[in-house]
Amino acid sequence: MAKWSVKAAVIGAGMSGLVAARELRREGHTVVVFEKGSKVNSMWVYDPWVKSDLSGLDQAHEVVHSSMYKSLRTNLPRPIMGFLDYPFEAKHGVGVDPRPFPGDEEMLRFPRGFTADSGVVKLV
User: Fold this and answer.
1) Which of 3, 42, 55, 93 is the most buried (most CB within 10 A)?
2) According to the model, what pLDDT value does residue 46 have?
3) How many whole angstroms from its chain centre is CA 117?
């Protein structure tokens, strides 16, 4: 525990932000997590919606506002995606994907489970 306590803001509820929030709270600090998206790890939320050019200069131009695409998989294998005290497992979903690299649905289930199990969900 810290000898003194601070109010800390964590920007982003991706995996780094979530574990930072957990560790800050473990040290006795007051933490709030700000996330632009509607869910934790929202950069992994697939949305097929495509919007017209935001600048309005080219009405025929189509822009995808996400780096996600259907069936995207991470380039890191499961054993190194988790934390020492919270391994990346399929316990928060139905079935186990035998492939070594998690897909988009697992990349959303894991942080949801982590936030619920660690109590960080109340900070986001």
Assistant:
1) 42
2) 79
3) 15
In tens, the pLDDT along 25-76 reads 999 999 999 998 888 888 888 777 666 656 666 666 655 566 777 788 999 9
Query: Smallest Cα–Cα separation from 15: which of 94, 114, 93?
Result: 114
Angle, CA 111 vertex, CA 102 and CA 63 arms, to 5°? 70
The 8-class DSSP code of residue 4 comes to S
Task: For residue 61, give both structure tokens.
Answer: 């131009």
CB 2 within 8 A of CB 23: no
Burial track 58-78 (b if 16+ CB lie within 10 A, e otherwise): eeeeeeeeeebeeeeebeeeb
**82 burial level (CB within 10 Å; 0-12, 13-18, 19+):** middle
Let me know: does 100 contact 124? Beta carbons within 8 Å.
no
pTM of the model as a whole = 0.76
